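hiii so my PI (J.) wants the whole complex modelled not just the main chain, which honestly fair. so below is everything: two entries, each one labled with what it is. i double checked the lines twice but i was tired so who knows lol
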Amino acid sequence: AQTVTQSQPEMSVQEAETVTLSCTYDTSESDYYLFWYKQPPSRQMILVIRQEAYKQQNATENRFSVNFQKAAKSFSLKISDSQLGDAAMYFCAYITTGNTPLVFGKGTRLSVIA
Amino acid sequence: AAGVIQSPRHLIKEKRETATLKCYPIPRHDTVYWYQQGPGQDPQFLISFYEKMQSDKGSIPDRFSAQQFSDYHSELNMSSLELGDSALYFCASSDTGARTAVYGYTFGSGTRLTVV
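here's the output for the full assembly
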């Protein structure tokens, strides 16, 4: 079974600084997709960024970027120029190309200090 | 753009009561997924439906049942409610034919169920 591990239950960052959230996963599949979701206090689940396993280039969305290391099965999220609105739970998630459901990690709670 | 609609947003039930949660997927989406997220927990997959048939089953208690209707909306029925069922219940949808799931689910805002 596929598993997603987030080893940092909580992280904090100063406003305008950079923070990296870690995620590792375990799979025997060769074709899959990885995601970072943000869940603010409103509890809405918001997609932040997506990475296709067959692409070597790391995905970037504005201040959010990933470091995807396929061989190491690592998928970290870097948030640059952190803002107060970035404070939230961040979940790493995995899905294969089949119809199997999205699998989430335990989440990392990010605090942004003004 | 239309999103996934869940109702009700909040629900308070007593122990041993029954609750029904509804999910209306994005138009033309044929697959619905249900997740349960307890306080401070990650979302746990419960069950999914594709074209009105159950397609995958996760850690859904036997007291819960679900179905997808001809208009693709889905209902999660929860009976003999327990205090531990208090959680946020998310629904998400995708278009299996177009493989939209690989672009990331679109989640509804969730139903917050409180069992007292």
